[in-house]
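Chapter review. Work through the record for HTH cro/C1-type domain-containing protein before attempting the end-of-chapter questions.
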Amino acid sequence: MSLAVSVNDAQKMVGGQHGAEHAGNVPHQSRVTTRSCAENVAGIFPHMARDIRERIRERLTDLKKSMRAASLDGGLGADGIRDLMRRPNDSPTMETIEKLAAGLNTTAAWLAFEAGPKTLRTGPSGGGNAPDRAFNLVRIDSAVKAGAFLQMNAFDDDLGEMITAPRDPDYPFARQVAYRVDGDSMDEAKPRPIRDGDFIICVLWEDLGLEPRAGQIVVVEQTINGGQLRERSVKALHPFPDHVEFRPMSSNDKHEPIVVPHDMNPDDGREVKILALVRYVFDSQIIR
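Structure tokens for HTH cro/C1-type domain-containing protein:
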């Protein structure tokens, strides 16, 4: 088995198996933290269980501001926020969110995804700094599913689907990519579960120049049969002196870690490669 962790890393490792569809014990010692606790460890996990309307109410309360005043300050009609509150099944556009954020003195990323600063900093003139455009259109690659080895042509990374996602403040020059999660192999991830149907927003590992660190949540790819069969899944990374583990964090005990010993024996035909570092996760509704 070979482990490819970066463009410049050609170290070969063999052994280890990943029986995601077989029974086994799941290690749960993962040390996952948010960016505020340890930079570049596990990424940013917005609490998307909260509706955007809750965050709007929170900012109105913080500012002691009326819906009408916030709507007008953001360049919306006088009833912009009130109309949004009356239609709980409607999802605002990103353009509307940026206007709402301006009227609520917050960032569009916090308002939409509960990520990034909640309150705009005050500039030298005393006014709040206007937020930069906070979103990108990110390509959605193939789904990630533990235990599903598929033919290479099943991984069409140019599906033509795009998703709106926050720009990454820590890695502004890294390319972003999104995946749709299939399955329950990370449904006990902390501090935010990664559930079936969720979207994860990632930065490409090859753009980062990082060393693998304990607790990083990554998209990992296994290939067998000369690359003809491959599996992509989300795992918690745990390097050790003699091996590397990619662990599930699941309520389903059939999921097992990928274990890659540091062994210089000949390659057994299996390659494990880190594709991306997970930075955001949110549910399929995205903005509610």
